[in-house]
Amino acid sequence: MFPLRDNIPTDRFPVVTLALIIANVLMYFFFQKGGISLGDPSNADFTQNLIDYGSIPYEITHPGDHCELVQGGAIACEGQPGVTGTAAPQPATWLTLFTSMFMHGGLLHLGGNMLFLWIFGNNVEDSMGPVKFVVFYVLGGLAATALQVAVGPNAMVPSIGASGAVAAVLGGYLLLFPRARVVTLVFIIFFFTILEIPALLFLFIWIGQQAIFGYLDLVQPAGGEGGVAYFAHIGGFAFGLAAIRLFASERRHRRQLERAGMR
Predict the structure, then answer these.
(1) Percentages (nearest 5) of helix, strand, coil residues in the chain
(2) Residue 261 backbone class (left: φ over 0; alpha: ψ -120 to 50; beta: rest)
(3) Structural domain total, the chain
(4) Are 141 and 83 in contact (CB under 8 A)?
(5) pLDDT tens-digit series, residues 75-118
(6) Is the pTM of this model over 0.85?
(7) d(CA 10, CA 75)
(8) Residue 224 banded pLDDT, cuts 50, 70, 90
């Protein structure tokens, strides 16, 4: 399912939401040197940036130890059994907690996250104002990383993407606008249709998928060692649910509901 728009009007132009989208796009094309394909392993700069600026759980849980690419494209980390020598100088691990939020593995990864951010982020930003929204978004991304690391503390694959922070936005949206409706592109095998469905249903299906895929990822032998960071999505979503009332303004929220005809 892909959301196309919702029915909640905004009071102010979503400056921060747009700025975050622009920052992610610029990061992908100019810093990561990403292309049109779903990541490009042959692009040395792209791959090296993933290792240097992606969030690697092993580095977080082993302060001072760093990971790097070795022969054959594998990742080795200092302190691992059988690993000798030291890694090349790299950015501080704390910095990667923030840079990883603005990095993506490919154009579809980037586009999907930015689509969700635009549709749901503008209303959440409107409910709390630009400064609070920045703080909410960043803390949501950090909470997402924290759960992913807790589930796979020794994982050596870099975690990248805005999806954890965007998941926090989705969690906040769910509590703020449970009666909203979302125009959604729905794929059914080889066919697709456009439906207007309750936001509550859309978001429950989305987080349910993350929970199921996260469980399946755990029970596999390589669980937590690669692929999609489902627990980052769950961690961000949980943060959004827990923290939205601390950030959203009751006055702003009431005005949003009145404009949408929900009061």
Answers:
(1) 55, 10, 30
(2) left
(3) 1
(4) no
(5) 888 888 878 778 788 889 999 999 999 999 889 999 999 999 99
(6) yes
(7) 45
(8) very low
CB 166 within 8 A of CB 117: yes
pLDDT tens column, 9-49: 988 999 999 999 999 999 999 999 887 755 455 567 788 88
The CATH number that applies at residue 124 is 1.20.1540.10
- Distance, first Cα to last Cα, the chain: 29
Using an 8 Å Cβ cutoff, are 159 and 229 in contact? yes
Q: Which of 170, 34, 174 is nearest to 109 (CA)?
A: 34
pLDDT tens, 166-195?
A: 999 999 999 999 999 999 988 877 788 898
User: Which are the contacts of 157, defined by CB distance < 8 A and separation ≥ 6?
Assistant: 56, 75, 225, 226
Closest CA to 164 of 97, 100, 235, 79: 235
How many Å is the maximal CA-CA distance in the chain? 65
Range of the domain at 239: 2-259
The dihedrals phi and psi of 204, each to the nearest 5 degrees, come to: -65, -40
Spatial separation of the C-alpha atoms in residues 160 and 166, rounded to whole Å: 13
Phi and psi at residue 185, in whole multiples of 5°? Answer: -90, 115
Which two structure tokens, joined as six digits, stand for 218? 């755990």
